[in-house]
Design brief:
The chain is of the alpha/beta class. It has 22 helices and 6 strands. The strands form 2 sheets. A 4-stranded mixed beta sheet has the order 3-4-5-6. Strands 1-2 form a two-stranded antiparallel sheet. It is elongated and about 100 Å long. The relative contact order is 0.16.
């Protein structure tokens, strides 16, 4: 009973810390994020081929739900480009209602991933892949600002420079209010008072004037519909979780705190499921907005919740004011995020780090920037990391042998990891031309991992037996013995005859 009370008390204290441990900074950071979310949500809606309100409603819904149910306090989730690009074909061929249904299904798949503890797959993502992911995202964030900097009036560049000056210089005087928020207020005031010729948030698209409502996607509930939406839903679910878990790990590092990756999967799933029923598109964690939040002082769940609520208030209640925010102010903030997100130390470390680590990092950056697909970039990095690791482990493998004084027995001592990459080296280490009565294969210093290594062991044993030698395997650990007993054939009846036939 006492233990239950202590557990309940710990949970209550953790909830209090997550929600009320940093109220003032979370409120201000949430406001900055809400302002920065508006043009991005509109832009992502345009990418997906839907009305701007779809992305704006989604950003509100996802931010609020993940703040409550997610596993990483201080991380911002909303409508994103990573998921928007996956919906283009579905919207073009089948319309908005199928997109809403795909969003709901993607959410359910993510919830299932959380309950299956798939969040733990992040341990397979190396530091080099994380660094490449961060650098690629910084580059993509900067590239995304170029349309606002090309073919524009000269005053645009002046405002961007002024915004960056405020963002970087104001913290030297005071940190009472986040400098990005001050930059937005000052540049908006200048733009309105001086009637400057610059693009504004209102030029990005029409802001909604009503609250989102609960609705069921208007689609036929049959197998044909499932065939249409499932491929999109699985892609959205995987890409969304990958980007969210990577962003959660980054925020973990920046704040020196831990997050619950499996709970984050569930939170993202709940957010997308709810959003689909509220007329919004799927989304996930946003590394750019999360960086704005963290750099503005946001640490708790309140910052993400406030960002979602403020977003809705701004677009519905204060739309006329929000429309006047100059895009250069938001571009300045995103450039700040890009500069702050890029790992500049990774450039200096290219010569110091192992070549394989540098290749993994650069490949992750290159594929991500070229395809504009974070999932492909990270997948490339993970695969390369696995290949390099397998190659290194395969090199730490040795076979030595000694011949008995009477010349009738040879003892082979295996050391290292025996798996697909080292199986050939293992097979080539035996001399089958010797005339021996007995062969001892000592694997006490080795571990047998897979079917390739078991097959190599089978072949070695059977070849020696074919030539009349008595073969004994000694020193096998319990795990290796289990896989050899299950997959091995050298001790099974007729194994030698089958090999002779081949």
């Amino acid at each position: 009973m006492k233990g239950t009370r202590l557990l309940a008390s710990d949970r209550l204290n953790r909830l209090r810390a997550d929600w009320l441990g940093n109220v003032r900074a979370d409120l201000l950071a949430g406001l900055v994020v809400a302002l920065a979310l508006i043009p991005e949500a509109i832009a992502f809606s345009i990418i997906a081929g839907v009305d701007p309100k779809i992305g704006l409603y989604a950003s509100f819904s996802i931010a609020v739900v993940t703040a409550i149910a997610g596993g990483r306090p201080g991380m911002i989730s909303a409508a994103t480009a990573a998921t928007a690009v996956l919906m283009v074909t579905l919207v073009r061929d089948h319309g908005l209602q199928y997109l809403l249904a795909a969003t709901v299904l993607a959410g359910l798949l993510q919830i299932g991933a959380g309950f299956l503890k798939l969040g733990s797959v992040m341990r397979f993502v190396s530091r080099s892949v994380m660094t490449g992911f961060v650098n690629a995202l910084a580059i993509l964030i900067f590239i995304a600002q170029l349309p606002e900097l090309i073919g524009v009036t000269g005053i645009t560049y002046v405002l961007v420079a002024a915004g960056l000056a405020i963002i970087y210089l104001l913290p030297r005087l005071t940190t009472a209010v986040p400098s990005p928020l001050i930059a937005i207020v000052v540049l908006t005031t200048l733009s309105v008072v001086l009637n400057l010729d610059v693009r504004t948030v209102g030029d990005m698209g029409e802001l909604p004037s009503t609250l989102p409502i609960f609705l069921l996607p208007d689609i036929p509930l049959n197998f044909e519909t499932l065939q249409i939406i499932f491929p999109v839903s699985i892609a959205v679910a995987v890409v969304g979780l990958l980007e969210s878990l990577m962003t959660a790990s980054l925020v973990d590092d920046l704040t020196d705190t831990k997050s619950d990756k499996n709970q984050e999967c569930i939170g993202q799933g709940l957010a997308n499921t709810v959003t689909g029923f509220m007329g919004g598109m799927a989304g996930c964690a946003m590394i750019g907005q999360s960086m704005i939040n963290v750099k503005s002082g946001g640490r708790g769940r309140l910052s993400c919740f406030v960002a979602g609520v403020f977003l809705l208030i701004l677009i519905v209640g204060l739309g006329d004011l929000v429309r006047q925010i100059p895009m250069p102010a938001l571009v300045a903030i995103m450039i700040m995020v890009s500069i702050g997100t890029f790992s500049w130390s990774s450039i200096r470390s290219l010569r110091e780090h192992p070549t394989s680590s540098s290749i993994v990092m650069l490949a992750t950056v290159a594929v991500t920037v070229y395809t504009h697909n974070l999932a492909l970039g990270v997948l490339t990095g993970v695969l390369l990391s696995g290949l390099f690791f397998a190659g290194k482990i395969a090199q730490i493998f040795r076979v030595t042998s000694t011949l008995s004084e009477d010349g009738v027995e040879r003892r082979y001592v295996i050391q290292g990891q025996l798996f697909f990459a080292s199986a050939n080296s293992f097979a080539e280490s035996f001399d089958y031309g010797e005339s021996l009565e007995r062969v001892v294969i000592d694997v006490s210093g080795a571990h047998i991992w897979d079917i390739s290594s078991v097959a190599a062991l089978d072949m070695a044993v059977l070849k020696f037996r074919r030539d009349g030698a008595d073969v004994e395997i000694i020193g096998m650990n319990a795990a290796s013995e289990t896989i050899v007993d299950k997959l091995g054939v050298h001790d099974k009846p007729g194994a030698l005859d089958k090999m002779m036939q081949h």
